[in-house]
Amino acid sequence: MAIPSRIVAIDGDSATVECFGVRRVVSLMLMTEPVALGDYLLIQSGSFAMEKVEPKAALEALEYLGTVVGQGEPVTGTA
Amino acid sequence: MTGWAAEGSIDIELILTTGMITEVRITNRRPLGATAVLAGRPAAEVPELVSRLFSVCRIAQGIAAARAMEAACGKPADAAQETARQVLLLGETVLEHATRAVFDWPMLLGEAPAAGEVKALRGALTNLHRVLYPDGDWMCPGGGRLAPDLQALAERLATVGAVLDRAVFGGASGFDGPERDDWARQGRTAAARLFARLAAGGLEGFGASEAAPLPVLSAPALNARMAADRDGSFLALPEWTGTVHHTGPLARQADSRAVARALAEHGCGVLAHGTARLVELVLSLREMRDFCGTLCEHDGVPTAPAEGCGLAIVEAARGRLVHRAEVQEGNVTRYQILAPTEWNFRPDGALARGLIGRPGGDDPAWRARLLVTALDPCVAFSLRVS
User: Fold this and answer.
1) Do B1 and A43 touch (CB under 8 A)?
2) Does the pLDDT at position B172 exceed 90?
3) For labelling, which of A1, A39, B74, B247 has a CA lying 20 to 30 Å from the CA of A49?
4) Does the structure show a pLDDT above 70 at B1?
5) Reported confidence tier of residue A2, pLDDT bands at 50, 70, 90
6) Cα-trace Rg, chain A
7) How far from the centroid of its chain's Cα atoms is residue B162's Cα?
8) Chain A to chain B, count of Cβ pairs less than 8 Å apart?
């Protein structure tokens, strides 16, 4: 699952994005199109923006996922 | 605020005792209950929604969802649609495997990742569906309007072939025994240099475990198992007849000559995983070229179940992906996804078993990253050494 994250700051080849209140810095080095503040990006492997998402589609996805993200317990175990 | 990236992560802690990895603690923070958002949605709309929400391997996810709906109403798509779907699935596999080889593997070596090559691959493969389905309805149950642009497809495959020759294979004539070793020694690509580093460090067998390759599963038995999984424990901690399995390129390509040789020489460690990924990369691109000759125009017959239950099994880039849908009065009432990451990264699964009892060496986190990257989780991972 890659959840659309909104760009809140850009610094050269990296951007700060926000999703459900969590901010993180991601690399833009794999983006094939220009990005701007407020754009929604899909992030893979935690720290690489891979593609831009149309705002309407991004907001729809966030609305759907807002009800389930953060729910449920993580699966933890030791071997 | 969740405090965690919303798509979740795999958090791994290694505990070392006198230089040996003696304990592995894995926390899977993936939002496994996210399919709950699909309940109540019209069955015909779910595949498109699935491909948007579960957008890592979106092609495999969308096709699995379409097939689950078709299974629920007992109407499989026409062979022409299935051929096109197979081309799209192979394209996604090529993109994922190639990205590991030109992006992740250089980073394991401390080299700069080949971002330009990844961009070229993504430009050719990310929206491959537009070349086959101009209306964007590739995930429509029953099939979409298939109108392949064969010239554009051939051009994209030529681009991909050139990138792979230049940035991955670098003149390799094969990955079997001496050919593989010569290629690694020449070190023309990061893939070759990674293989050489494994050999120099005696790490070819690192990460081997007794976790078995995931066999063909009986669809009725799997359907029954998932139907009974009311608390989600099977989807979170999958096993089959009490056995822990791994899934992905190594499980699929174990019979190929090059992989069989790597397995015989070093077991199912990181060399066998890497060889399987390269072998599958070659085979997938070849299959795509072969399928080009059989693609044809075809109008799908949109279909959606009114009542029923459907199961779909797809071999995605990272491994076996299973979707299961229950439908009543045209709406989905229950939707389940069993993903490869849950097989490979369960706390006592292939990763943990492959690390336990291994020497950590000078950099145990780096060694663990080798195996994590080989097993290829669909979310970010973190590694901590205690």
Assistant:
1) no
2) no
3) B247
4) no
5) confident
6) 14
7) 23
8) 121
Q: At B37, is the secondary structure helix, strand, or coil? A: helix
- Which of B12 and A43 is assigned the larger pLDDT? B12
CA–CA gap between residue A65 and residue B79 (Å, rounded) = 34
CB within 8 Å: B115 and A30? yes
Tokens 């050719």 identify what position? B124
Residue A36 in domain? yes
Reply yes or no on whether the pLDDT at B337 is more than 80: yes
User: Across the interface, which of A1, A32, A77 has its CB nearest the CB of B119?
Assistant: A32
- Quick check: is A14 in a domain? yes
Whole-angstrom distance, CA of residue B370 vs CA of residue B108: 7
Please give the pLDDT value at position A3.
86
Residue B3's pLDDT band (boundaries 50, 70, 90)? very low
Residue of B3, B52, B56 with shortest CB distance to A22: B3
Is residue B12 in a domain? no
- Are B331 and B235 in contact by the 8 Å Cβ rule? The answer is no
Higher-confidence position of A1 and B95:
B95
B299 touches chain A (CB under 8 A): no
**B25 in a domain, yes or no?**
no
- Within a domain: residue A76? no
- Flag whether B190 is in a domain: yes
Of A32, A44, A79, nearest to B56 by CB-CB distance is A44
Residue written as token pair 């209950």: B33
Can you state the angle between helices B150-164 and B79-99, rounded to 10 degrees? 30
Number of structural domains in chain A: 1
